[in-house]
Amino acid sequence: MPRFALSTFVAVAIASSKVYAQDSSTTTATSSSIVPLASKHFDYNNLPYQADPDTGVRGTQSGFNRCNSTTENQSSLCQTAIINSIEDFCLWAPPTGLTTIGETEHEEVAWCTKPGHGSRLIPAGALKGVQFMKTPDYVQVVGFIDQTFINLKPDDYGGELDPHGADFRGNPLGGLFYSTAWSGGNSNDYKQVIEWHNFMGGSAFCLKACDPAGAHAPDFCQHIYDRIGCAYNAPNNAKNGTFESCQGENQDYPGIYTDSSGKVQTYTQPPESLGVISTMPYQPKVPASSNCVTYTSSAIYAALPTVSGVTPSGHSSGVSSIRSTGTRTGTTGPSNTGTSSGSGSNSGSPTTLAISSLTSLLGVALAVFFLS
Q1: Which of 239, 316, 329, 351 is the most buried (most CB within 10 A)?
Q2: Average pLDDT, whole number, for the chain?
């Protein structure tokens, strides 16, 4: 699967693209002795020290999965992540910085919004807007973030993390996900999420975790569309400055769409060797949502630490609405308008932002961040 290519759509054309790292599929062969990460199942209360004890071309797992109160600090190398609610979720980001997803995909660690998981905590003030959605087949969290707080360069437009990878060992290596979303209200019953994807970069993020008992978990949590980012993999209506939790309908499977004649089609992502993706044959539909509850960020993230030595970059606070005019080149996440050189700065006025289709994302002018 191509990795770490960022393509930016502006209106109908992509204005620029960047390659952050070579696709590991060009350099890695899968050993028959390696058990794919997505095939490994572990009880949350009896986790191994490392889910991936193997050694391959990409080396060994850099962190650990047995996380507890003794490992919870801002230097933690915990690689067991959680997604339960708008108040309680984790994102993958580098252990040291400032760096890029492209340079560190194999070693990302869990950064969480709530203590108790043995991981690092996302510093107070980093999250700028979050939408949590629970649907019949998956839970999803999408939002805006000052990514410098979690060791990402402000101008990094990111990459995709998932439990697969070219060598099937996952990105990060050995990274595990758990949730109580399908535990019938039992907050202590963590189910392992087998299929998930997390796009990070461009001052935004999207994370989807699919019901492990669902018949179509691999379809909703596809990992082959890493060049077309959040707008196509996790269409949504997240807004910068708003924190809300909703119920929602399922999206169409990523890459599946109905054309103008009513025929169901499957999009095939071209290889990076063919260059920038300049057009898309469809616009993703944003699933309907209901029963949305709005929160105050200071209330739901009250336990997050203020980290000394970390200065807000301002890159996420300047994102403007996805309305009509203006273009934002080089972003990956919800959606953006205003103007940008692609360097990560925002010159538009801060209003709202929705991640959705090309139209919703930037109105008529779209800037989508493409994470690999």
Answers
A1: 316
A2: 79
For residue 162, the 8-state DSSP code is B
How far apart are alpha carbons 291 and 248 in whole angstroms? 9
Q: In terms of residues, how long is the chain?
A: 372
Task: Locate 145 and state its tokens.
Answer: 């973030």
**Helix or strand holding residue 232 (H, E):** helix 229-233
Reduce the DSSP state of residue 210 to 3 states and report it. strand
Task: Name the token pair of 238.
Answer: 């997240």
CB 16 within 8 A of CB 342: yes
Q: How many CB atoms lie within 10 A of CB 93?
A: 26
Q: Which helix (H) or strand (E) holds 88?
A: strand 88-93
Rounded to whole angstroms, the Cα distance separating 345 from 353 reads 15
Q: Three-class SS of residue 257?
A: strand
Q: Please state, for a pLDDT cut of 70, what percent of the chain lies above it.
A: 74
- Of 234, 227, 99, 212, the residue nearest 154 (C-alpha): 99
* Residue found by looking up tokens 């492990």 in the block: 212
Q: What are phi and psi of 140, to 5 degrees?
A: -145, 140
Could you report the per-residue pLDDT of 139-172, keeping only the tens digit for each?
Answer: 999 999 999 999 999 999 999 999 999 899 999 9
Give the closest residue to 97 by CA, choosing from 88, 109, 85, 87.
109
Mean pLDDT throughout 316-341? 27
* Cβ partners under 8 Å of residue 62, min gap 6: 77, 79, 95, 106, 107, 172, 173
Query: What 8-state DSSP symbol labels residue 64?
Result: B
What mean pLDDT is predicted for residues 176-200?
96
Which residues, other chains included, contact 284 with Cβ-Cβ below 8 Å and sequence gap of 6+? Answer: 231, 232, 235, 251, 252, 254, 257, 356, 357
Q: How far apart are CA 87 and CA 91, in angstroms?
A: 13
Angle at the Cα of 204 (from 200 to 209), degrees rounded to 5?
55
The domain locations on the chain are 5-26+38-362
